[in-house]
Amino acid sequence: MAHYLELLEGAGLAGGLDKYAGDIARQRGSSPKLLALNPALATAVDSRLPAEVRIDSEAWGPR
Which residue of 18, 34, 35, 58 sits 20 to 30 Å from the alpha carbon of 9, by its own alpha carbon? Predict the structure, then answer.
């Protein structure tokens, strides 16, 4: 799985965000959160129209 994540990061598509913990063992034991590096990837799978997303403050983000 880590190899695929490296490939995605190398292509600029997605990256892993590691857990923050003071203990190295706890960091390594957790799965990374997947972070889309290109916002178009996150919106490409959304079936809503752009106007519908703009009125959804949680999806659109802070104004």
Answer: 58
Task: Specify burial of residue 51 (Cβ count, 10 A radius: 0-12, 13-18, 19+).
Answer: exposed
What does the alpha-carbon distance between residue 61 and residue 53 come to, in Å, rounded to a whole number?
Answer: 10
For 11-58, the pLDDT digits (tens) are 888 888 877 767 766 666 677 788 878 777 777 788 888 888 888 877
Q: Which amino acid is at 23?
A: D
**DSSP state letter for 19:** P
Q: How many residues in total does the chain contain?
A: 63
Two structure tokens written together for 49: 């129209």
Q: What is the pTM of this model?
A: 0.47
Neighbours of 46 (CB within 10 A): 11
